[in-house]
Amino acid sequence: MPKDSDIKRRMDRVEEIIDQLDAEEMSIEEGRELYDEGQELLAEIRDRLQEGDGKVIEIE
User: Fold this and answer.
1) What Å distances lie between residue 23 and 12, 14, 16, 52, CA to CA?
2) How is the chain split into domains, by residue range?
3) pLDDT digits over 2-59, tens only?
4) Cys-Cys crosslink for 17: which of 36, 38, 45, 52, Cβ 3.0 to 4.6 Å?
């Protein structure tokens, strides 16, 4: 079963990336790097959730 803290940490980073992309003016290259990092994190989250046993719990 995936650890809640692993998923939470990744989700927190995805939120940071979204905030950065919304707030900051950056080069296309910097934006692309952040986008790619976000996509990688989301794929990891998806994989970790699929490892679970189907139970849904609330993360605080």
Assistant:
1) 16, 14, 10, 34
2) 4-51
3) 456 888 999 999 999 999 999 878 899 999 999 999 999 999 999 888 876 666 667 7
4) 38
